[in-house]
Amino acid sequence: MLGARPLHASLYLTRAFQGARVAPIITVSGLNKTYATGFTALKNVDLEIRAGEIFALLGPNGAGKTTLIGIICGLVNASRGQVIADGHDIKKEFRAARAKIGLVPQELNTDAFETVWATVNFSRGLFGKAPDKAYLEQVLKDLSLWDKRNEKIMALSGGMKRRVMIAKALSHEPRILFLDEPTAGVDVELRRSMWEMVRRLRENGVTIVLTTHYIEEAELMADRIGVINKGEIILVEDKAALMEKLGKKQLSVRLQAPIDSVPEALAPYRLELSDDRSELVYSFDAQHENTGIAGLMRQLAASGVDFKDLQTRESSLEDIFVSLVREPS
């Protein structure tokens, strides 16, 4: 398991942490991308990512997440705009900027006929790094791949192949690690162990930028959340602040007997009646001193609406995300 070893002692963590600074490690300014077909994938994107944070980039399919990551990593040319990665312009100083970045793409693209050791060692060499057996050995051990080092990648399970992709991304000791849907198609146990590794990387100064369709992972892992939709960044916020500002609590009132409609006297509370007409749902801001619950209870009694159960529920990040990207009716 990845969490079984003290990752903070790993060579790549120690080295990546050297020179950490407070200023943003990635700065994206006025970024646009229009393809030859005329499709505009990104529109005037401005974004700063802080050194040493876990930044989750969320958005529906086709929102521009992969295009944005591709441009920052130097794999896609922008139509207009600038990207600075750890002080280097990704276009003018491509090699210096790219050397700071590790990328785990969505698709598995390793050479199936190579061994684990050969592909990771080759990846290090691509970035001009001198051979370092001790360093790569530690990376493979931290990813529970050391025992598989002499096996061909084609013989590995999907989860093990995903670990090889992470090992390749870490092979050249980057300070920034992009994880594009890193847990897609892997089992729950591996997913948890991978996130434990990600936390420890962050604790030691490595900046993590991830996209995920598992929104609960972003809610669990991220320090900040960015939401992109139709090529535009529509929100960037600290996770806790986002949950506080946009999150709501709901009080579910389970009725003794179904009702045909919400009594007119309860209209100010904007209650929602469930499809089976046996539950009323009241949304409120838990941060306000007066939540309105006491008044609601009194009005329910005055209206002759009897209930048998009360339950509260807090909005999840998924609820907030859906509300942000929902098409206007």
Automatic annotation (TrEMBL):
GO molecular function: ATP binding; ATP hydrolysis activity
SUPFAM superfamilies (UniProt xref): P-loop containing nucleoside triphosphate hydrolases (SSF52540)
Keywords from the named record: ATP-binding, Nucleotide-binding, Transport
Chain ranges of the ABC transporter domain: 26-255
Keyword flag DNA-binding: no
PANTHER family: ABC TRANSPORTER ATP-BINDING PROTEIN
Protein name: ABC transporter ATP-binding protein
Domain of life: Bacteria
rRNA-binding found in the keyword field: no
